[in-house]
């Protein structure tokens, strides 16, 4: 089939590479301009550069709603559009233009985790698996019929970085497998169960602030979710920002006030956690590695030279 591709960052780059390696013909690429947003500078392989290396025409747009793009798309006459990590709304006159419609590739197991940063949100929420879904686009975000979907398990120590590498390798088989199925003429696919749908917003600084009223298990997942190269989860110690780079749930149970710097356990320093920590039934969060405001990375036992005092959510 003749394919027009809309995409951005490494997700879009992997999708375009899969298309270029396939039997399908890429006739036009649309991508976003480079961004200075913290999360958009991560996994930032250039879709535009890859397209130009292969002689594919490229259009740079924030939004695909102008008449020039529409005319260029009509001239390219694709059988189908493939989109992956396109960051703004695609209007119906675009996604309905090709005779085979538009196939969107999303890095979650739809209908759950539509929207933004699905891997981070899924890890924070303790999901047992993540994956990639190829679905037909309609006028509701990430809600169209599923053509192909593949999952991978979330391991007990996996970070978002680990999950990125696991799921990005699914892009080629999911995308090309879906396209090959569509090319056979099939038009009936799996309806999404909208009662199971969830939609998540973009991540921001507020979303990585540690709240010591959370259970230690939730805080430990937050630290893993905000793994390098993502911005690290942070707290405050003596009024200064302290990034938590690594942590585990404590072996022992610790009671008291959430945020209390309490006890050395192995290579970590245990912080009391959980709104009901006073009961003494909770595990704590054993922090093992931190980064200070001036950029020094230290083991927790090196940084916390004495017990006592508190970590707080704000200065």
UniProtKB/TrEMBL annotation:
Gene3D superfamilies: 3.40.50.12230. Residues 1-169 form the Formyl transferase N-terminal domain. Residues 204-306 form the Formyl transferase C-terminal domain. This is Methionyl-tRNA formyltransferase.
């Amino acid at each position: 089939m003749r394919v027009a591709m809309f995409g951005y960052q490494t997700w879009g780059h992997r999708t375009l590479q899969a298309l270029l390696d396939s039997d399908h013909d890429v006739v036009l690429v649309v991508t976003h301009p480079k961004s200075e947003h913290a999360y958009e500078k991560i996994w930032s392989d250039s879709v535009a550069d890859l397209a130009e290396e292969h002689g594919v025409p490229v259009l740079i747009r924030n939004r695909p709603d102008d008449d020039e793009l529409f005319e260029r798309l009509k001239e390219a006459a694709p059988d189908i559009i493939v989109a992956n990590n396109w960051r703004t709304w695609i209007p119906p006159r675009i996604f309905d233009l090709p005779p085979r419609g538009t196939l969107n590739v999303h890095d979650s197991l739809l209908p759950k985790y539509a929207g933004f940063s699905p891997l981070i949100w899924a890890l924070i929420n303790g999901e047992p698996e993540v994956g990639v879904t190829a679905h037909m686009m309609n006028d509701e975000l990430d809600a169209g019929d599923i053509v192909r979907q593949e999952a991978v398990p979330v391991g007990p120590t996996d970070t978002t970085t680990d999950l990125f590498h696991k799921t990005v390798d699914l892009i080629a088989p999911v995308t090309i497998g879906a396209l090959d199925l569509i090319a056979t003429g099939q038009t009936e696919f799996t309806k999404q169960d909208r009662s199971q749908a969830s939609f998540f917003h973009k991540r921001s600084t507020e979303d990585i602030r540690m709240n010591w009223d959370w259970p230690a298990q939730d805080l430990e997942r937050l630290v893993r979710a905000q793994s390098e190269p993502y911005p690290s989860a942070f707290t405050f110690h003596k009024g200064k920002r302290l990034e938590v780079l690594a942590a585990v749930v404590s072996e022992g149970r610790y009671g008291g006030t959430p945020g209390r710097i309490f006890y050395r356990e192995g290579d970590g320093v245990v912080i009391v956690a959980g709104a009901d920590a006073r009961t003494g039934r909770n595990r704590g969060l054993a922090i093992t590695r931190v980064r200070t405001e001036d950029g020094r990375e230290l083991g927790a036992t090196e940084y916390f030279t004495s017990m006592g005092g508190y970590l707080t959510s704000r200065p």
